[in-house]
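User: DUF1127 domain-containing protein, Mesorhizobium ventifaucium:
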Amino acid sequence: MNDTLASAPHQAGGTPLEPTEILRRNYSLASLRSIIAAWDERKRFRWELEQMSKDNPHLIDDIGLTRRQVETEIAKPFWRR
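Assistant: Predicted structure for DUF1127 domain-containing protein:
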């Protein structure tokens, strides 16, 4: 038997799992917490950036961003980098 097939995880029916299925099943609680923390940080950062652009637009220039870059960043959903 082929070594690759012999070592591949299988479903209950005996068929090999797809790589994406294997990745989905290997998430631990710690990695899920890490993902959620990253999402929360992105959401908070984008909210703060939006507030800064409204309240103190001159600070946006000071950090070297354009208005378009700020708008693009603010528009991203929290799960996107």
